[in-house]
Design goal:
The protein has 123 residues and is an alpha+beta fold. Helix content is 18%, strand content 44%. The strands form 2 sheets. Strands 4-5-3-7 form a 4-stranded antiparallel sheet, with no helix packed on it. Strands 1-2-6 form a 3-stranded antiparallel sheet, with no helix packed on it. The two termini are 32 Å apart.
Amino acid sequence: MALSLKLCAAIFLLLMVSQVASQQCLPASIDIQQTNNGKMAGALDTVFQVTVTNRCRCTVKNVYLHSDGFSSSTPVDTKVFRRAGSGYLVGDGRQIPSSKSVTFQYSWDHYFKMTPASLQAEC
């Protein structure tokens, strides 16, 4: 009886720890850096490089960003960044391991603010 009680307590504790670990991977765990790479697309549009980095200790997937009014005068690889529903899907929804990044470029006459909207954590 005591052994089964200890086993139940251990399983419960393990479930609680795994739930807390996955809750730590919030959209705020995604870091978005945009830089003007100094190049121009045409006469007016600046080329921006966007780096989306997973700062969570777990692998994440299905990372979505908000970016109101986003547009680009040059094509953006849709396997890296594309409109999906009300947001933008990063990396075709594939896994982004901890501390790894997905990078893409776009061009416009100004940068577009991008913020993390949602993700799925795999801890």
